[in-house]
Amino acid sequence: MRRRSAMPGRVLILYSVVERLPRGEPRDGIADEEVLWTARAMAEALAERGWPVETRAVWDLESLHQALDPFDPRETPVINLCETLEGRPQGEAVVPVALEGRGFVYTGSSGATLSLCLDKARAKARLQAAGLPTPAAQVFHNPDEPLRIPLPAIVKPLMEDASHGIDREAVVTEERTLRVRVAYVIGVYRQPALVEAFIDGREFNVALWGGRNPEILPIAEVDYSRIPNPLWRVCTYAAKWLPGSEEYELTPVRCPAELEEEVAARVRAVAFRAFRAVRCRDYARVDIRLRGETPYVLEVNPNPSLAPNSGFVNAAWTAGYSYGMLAERLIRLAWERRCRQREALPLQPVPTGAIDVAYSLAPSG
After folding, report:
1. Fold designation for 117-133+199-301
2. Alpha-carbon gap, residue 302 to 275, rounded angstroms
3. Is 49 exposed, middle or buried (0-12, 13-18, 19+ CB in 10 A)?
4. Percentage helix, strand, coil, to 5, in the chain?
5. For 24-63, how does the pLDDT look when each residue is reduced to its tens digit (9 = 90+)?
């Protein structure tokens, strides 16, 4: 495929590797391993379309800067697949700040948006301020705090993605079991727990991509119809990452979802508003539960998986985009920003110690 001369000469794919897990269960490393084969698959797809591609793995901020050193930021867009630094999800928000400090343009949302959405309580506050429906929630810093959320509820780590810390025991119906689960999250994941009112209803994943007026890809539905207990109808870690488990095998994702157009329009409208409320950029996925006629935003993921078998990629494929076309479009979205900022001078590199102040480097904006 011939590219316009205005496009870059080569592409750098950055992806995170986890040498050790500083929190969570041993099995949580399975989700982190996906990033490696996503990078490889994306590099291969772009090469088939005529793009010179380099891939670099990063573990911490020092290795990130070393990976960037051989590349000219004026000529090299970055596909940012980094989900952690030093195995910590908070490091996800540091990577864009470091890239901007070196003058690189990159795919995906800013550090401010990544930081905001990682903290589920802050993201909920932003959604509520925008008038969007989202389940009532309470943050627990210790298991003995007074409960203000109606039961049943679901207990999650406050700052994780990829369903880390979520299994069938995460949904609780009694205060005693809630406090046991809060203690588990605080002890194992080393962070506060978010207790969120459980919404029983159909669950949809809405993939969007583009700028401030993104294209909404076909809606997908997590099919819970084969799970009789409504309290087990949650997207657990096993349902996402453990083929062969009951949760994985009994919760297929249907895309496109079978929805009446009136309902689909409401779901799309809420997803669109959520995308804009947290200032997503290039691509994102909004997870929604429908109770009655109200679509509740469960979460906005500004850095969803781009693995070939992921929900975002499947939605793009349903809309007619191949994997190579998807990767190429993300590069073009990023490079358009480079063209608009061509006169801007690179800033000074972010200090190596910035990993320790991830949130101060990426304010909510």
Report:
1. D-amino Acid Aminotransferase; Chain A, domain 1 (3.30.470)
2. 8
3. middle
4. 40, 20, 40
5. 787 877 877 899 999 999 999 999 999 999 999 999 999 9
